[in-house]
Amino acid sequence: MIKSISAKRRTYLAIAAGAAITFGMVPVANAADGPSMTFRLNARVASFCRISAPFDGLPVPSSSVQDNSIDLGAVREICNSGSGYRVEARFMNVRSGTLMIDETPRNVTDGVAFYTNPQAARQVQLWRLADFETTASDEPILVRLSISPL
After folding, report:
1. How far is residue 35's CA from residue 74's CA, in Å, rounded to a whole number?
2. What is the 3-state secondary structure (H, E, C) of 62-113?
3. Tens digits of per-residue pLDDT, 17-63?
4. How many CB atoms lie within 10 A of CB 120?
């Protein structure tokens, strides 16, 4: 005996089938639980990365230099790139030194230090520039930060 499907139910099934075709979804029925449908939706979002710090783009006050070290404060970074991201710090008027990021050292060479993170992250880290050599002792130190997805 073949059971008749009501017009209302046929309409709902037609809408669901149309959505499955349109959005590339595959309906799955589980006979044990009765009539049901499951859809898997995959989406891609654009990469978004942002970095911010109180010193970015501003001259570092000479009064903050103590024992050839400058506490640069908290740096906030966020990046949703699944393959990770790269952070670069450019120090104007710094030839060399060590950038301490949460006590992890990074070399500053020709005024540039960088690091990569192999995954998406949202974090706040404390930065300090240590044992640095300036190119002109009478000029201020400027810092520019950039972050980019890998």
Report:
1. 54
2. HHHEECCEEEEEEEEEEECCCCCEEEEEEEECEEEEEEEECCEEEEEECCEE
3. 655 555 554 555 555 666 777 888 888 889 999 999 988 888 887 77
4. 17
User: Does residue 101 contact residue 125 with C-beta atoms inside 8 Å?
Assistant: yes
19-56 exposure pattern, b = at least 16 Cβ within 10 A, e = fewer: eeeeeebeeeeeeeeeeebeeeeeeeeeeebebebebe
Task: Please list the residues that pair with 121 across neighbouring strands.
Answer: 79
Question: Tens of pLDDT along 19-31?
Answer: 555 555 455 555 5
DSSP letter at 122 equals: E
pTM as predicted: 0.69
